[in-house]
Amino acid sequence: METRIEIPARRGKAAFVAAGQTITVINTHGEQVVDTWAFNRGDLAEFMSNEHTRAHTPHLVPKPGDILRTNKRRPILTMTEDTSGGVHDTLIAACDRYRYSFLGVEGHHDNCTDNLFAGMAELGLVPPEVPSPLNLFMNIPWSAEGTLGFAAPPRPVPGGYVCLRAEMDLVIAFSACPQDILPINGKAGRPVEAHFTVTRILASG
Fold it and tell me: Which ranges carry the DUF1989 domain (predicted)?
């Protein structure tokens, strides 16, 4: 049986994953952005890198069949399935306290950078830096002139999911993005929980 793990609204979660296992990230309510990171379990200084992945794939947004690579250009995840509508982002950095300060927030605001550290801390780990995340279910429309916007997914798919196969032993980390000022988390702008599962590897023989 797979265990369905909650990524609490506005919070982070991480898990150990073995090579060959599949991680299914579920957009439970259809409009929640999930910042996603992956680190080599044996060397956290090696991690999934959007910049390095883009040099090896023809897609700005990953699609099923695409291999996601590390900052050492090695495969770390392969996207095998996407029922969510395929709206994701690989360009925007994880939100942090400085981002919310720019948006006029005074004092603390939950953010994905802190959520990465908190989720990894539950496993007794400290990430060496905050890589650019794969922002699953995040809609960042770009114009031909190179300007961008922030919008809710155009066709929300409650329960839509993305499947990622681990290509090495890794640590997967997520943040249910707490952005409630810009409209990336649905029209109401209210962050909600998401979920993920990790398949077990069946013993042969």
Answer: 6-171
pTM, 2 dp? 0.94
Residue-level pLDDT at 203: 54
Whether residue 193 contacts residue 66, with contact meaning beta carbons closer than 8 Å, is answered with no
Q: What is the pLDDT of residue 1?
A: 56
The answer as to whether 22 is a domain residue is yes
Q: Per the domain annotation, does 205 fall within a domain?
A: no
Contacting residues for 123 by C-beta, under 8 A, at least 6 apart: 14, 15, 16, 171
Nearest CA-CA partner of 70 in 112, 35, 111, 42: 42
User: How many distinct structural domains can be found in the chain?
Assistant: 1
Residue 204 counted as domain residue: no
Dihedral sign for Cα atoms in the order 111, 114, 117, 121: negative
User: What per-residue confidence (pLDDT) applies to 205?
Assistant: 45
Nearest residue to 47 (alpha-carbon basis) of 69, 25, 63: 69
Segments forming the whole domain that contains residue 30:
5-198
120-147 burial: b if 16+ Cβ within 10 Å, else e? beeeebebeebbbbbbbbbbbeeeeeee
Residue with tokens 């990622």: 164
Residue ranges of the chain with per-residue pLDDT less than 70: 1, 187-188, 201-205
